[in-house]
Design goal:
- The chain is of the alpha/beta class.
- Helix content is 21%, strand content 28%.
- It has helices at residues 141-151, 168-171, 194-202, 216-220, 242-253, 263-270, 312-321, 323-335; strands at residues 27-32, 38-42, 55-59, 61-63, 67-72, 78-88, 93-99, 109-112, 118-125, 130-136, 179-182, 206-212, 236-240, 258-261, 282-286, 301-305, 346-350.
- The strands form three sheets. A nine-stranded mixed β-sheet has the order 2-1-17-16-14-3-12-13-15, covered by helices on one side. A six-stranded antiparallel β-barrel has the order 5-6-7-10-9-8. Strands 4-11 form a two-stranded parallel sheet.
- Helix 7 (312-321) crosses helix 8.
Amino acid sequence: MKLSQFKFNLPDELIAKHPATHRDESRLLVVRRKCGSLEHRTFKDILEYFNSGDFFIFNNTKVFPARLYGNKEKTGAKIEVFLLRELNPEHHLWDVLVNPARKIRIGNKLYFGENEELVAEVIDNTTSRGRTLRFLYDGSSEEFKNELFSIGEMPLPDYLNRAVEPEDAENYQTIFASEEGAVVAPAAGLHFSRELMKRMEINDIKFDFLTVHNGLGTAYRMIDVEDLTKHKMESEQMKISAALCEKVNKAKDANKNICAVGTSVLRAIESTVSTDGHLKPRDGWTNKFIFPPYNFTLNNSLVTTFHLPYSALLMLTCAFGNYDHVMKAYHEAIKEGYRFGTYGDAMLIID
């Protein structure tokens, strides 16, 4: 397929700036992927579509406060630094993006914090905006990270076009986040409340977790080639345990519904699923790029949010839910005023 096939007109006012007051009270558009029929519901109604023994797979990654604002030595120029990943805990090395990049060269020092108590030196260029920073800190890795994260703020998507608020520290994190490493929240999981997950237990609907540390590339990097076969995805770290595989494969063999909560989970599954439709353990990285047409062999339902035009996440959703059905659902969602983006409403794609 072509990039231009994933264009649609999204009014700015439909991009959600804030989440619903209660996690499970956003709107839910249910799409039947076999026939394309649509149902308008509330998210907490989702369990009506599942039965005892069905299995949900969540992403338990935890977003860290990745955005820092600092000053360049001598000139005092204001610099934004976006932490991508820790390269070496012992030496406090980080892979980052800087803005404006043209002002930042190897050897420059950057100062962070109200009293400029944290200093970093640029030691390498990685991409046009990418740099490797070495933070000059005398202390343990744990002490350093506490200091670093106390200065950083939650990395809300730029398209929200607003300042970070204190509530975002909780709102931009799933209730089951435990494995630190993401700079993008697994948005579909944000809709699940403690009450809803308790109801899952009561109804004997099973669930467990894998880990995908969502990066900027998958969620927000612009695809700049019309021929999608020429697009290269950035790699994301992932981990699928043997224990999860055993549970999921048991449910699969019992013909239970397997639901991926989020495109990050779906992508991780498809990065390791075997030809017979069974999940295999994995501890490594994935750069898998999925777009229509594509044959899925493990899960038969997906919870996701409403994505922006041209995004890789929209392409993956269309691959799972049928391109025509999903695009029809998107046009219906726009007509009915559904909210798009990380803090927006949700979609359930099911047989």
